[in-house]
Write a structure and sequence with these properties.
This protein has helices at residues 7-30, 37-50, 117-134, 143-156, and strands spanning 54-55, 67-71, 74-76, 90-99, 102-111, 160-161, 167-169, 176-180, 197-200, 203-205, 211-213, 220-222, 228-230, 233-236, 243-244. With 251 residues, it is an alpha+beta fold. The protein has one domain (7-244): Creatinase/methionine aminopeptidase superfamily (Creatine Amidinohydrolase, Alpha-Beta Complex). The longest helix is centred in the N-terminal third of the chain and has 24 residues, at 7-30.
Length: 251
């Protein structure tokens, strides 16, 4: 069942979204050659806790950190740790914040120093595919209208969308119904209604769409070793344009 959020719930989700986005920005601002992914994790956690929120991911199904940090051919769910970012890497930072029982979930891909033109284009296409997708995130459209728009844009640009992991409803649970795939035919799935809150998150590979999970049970990588990028925001469906919830707070 897809939950329609009340005005009060939406208010809390806006707070949670701003906190998650502030943490994503703080970790992203530190990205540079030589910094460890653990330092990024610490920075994000500090921001989240500074707002009186909790990292949604810490302990989620046993996940050991506050953010996911996935490097280069890693797609999602990488562990922060001792790895020092190197010039030319791309790093995906995925952050969730739980504020008074409601979650904000967002991710972005950051360049470490100078990166290749292909890597830069991959990051830009991934980000834009989110915006192409949310053009269809309006009351009356169906879930897979978003999916289709993401896939079409990504493939038109010569990249592929990951199929094994999908976007999702978000609210009092980090992952709620419906699933929001980044591929598929339009006109399928639930009809969107104002008050639904969704995490739209294209995961885009420079090569094939196939991925595998490492033996740590979490880290997902591309099978062909190609680069992967990720971009995510939590959004609110309205009667008009969707509202992006995961935007940094206005100071
Ligand atoms: Mg998510």
């Amino acid at each position: 069942m897809i939950k329609i959020k009340s005005t009060h719930e939406i208010k809390l989700m806006q707070e949670a979204g701003q906190i998650a986005a502030a943490a994503r920005a703080a970790a992203g601002a530190l990205v540079a050659p030589g910094i460890t992914t653990r330092e990024l994790d610490n920075a994000a956690r500090k921001v989240i806790e500074g707002f009186g929120a909790k990292p949604s991911f810490l302990g989620y199904n046993g996940f050991p950190a506050s953010i996911c940090c996935s490097i280069n051919h890693q797609v999602i769910h990488g562990f922060p740790g001792k790895y020092k970012l190197q010039e030319g890497d791309i790093v995906k930072i995925d952050v969730g914040a739980n504020y008074m029982g409601y979650h904000g979930d967002c991710a972005d891909t950051f360049a470490v120093g100078k990166i290749t033109e292909e890597a830069q284009r991959l990051i830009e296409v991934t980000r834009q595919s989110f915006y192409e997708g949310i053009k269809l995130a309006r009351e009356g459209q169906r879930v897979s209208d978003i999916s289709h728009a993401v896939q079409e844009y990504v493939e038109k640009n010569g990249f592929s969308v990951v199929r094994d992991y999908v976007g999702h409803g978000v609210g009092s649970e980090l992952h709620e119904a419906p699933e929001v795939p980044n591929y598929g035919n339009p006109g399928r799935g639930a009809r969107l209604v104002a008050g639904m809150t969704l995490a739209i998150e294209p995961m885009v590979n420079a090569g094939g769409y196939q991925v595998k999970t490492l033996r740590d049970g979490w880290t997902v990588e591309t099978v062909d070793g190609s680069l992967s990028a990720h971009y995510e925001n939590s959004i609110l469906i309205t009667k008009g344009d969707p509202i992006i919830l995961t935007v940094p707070p206005v100071k």
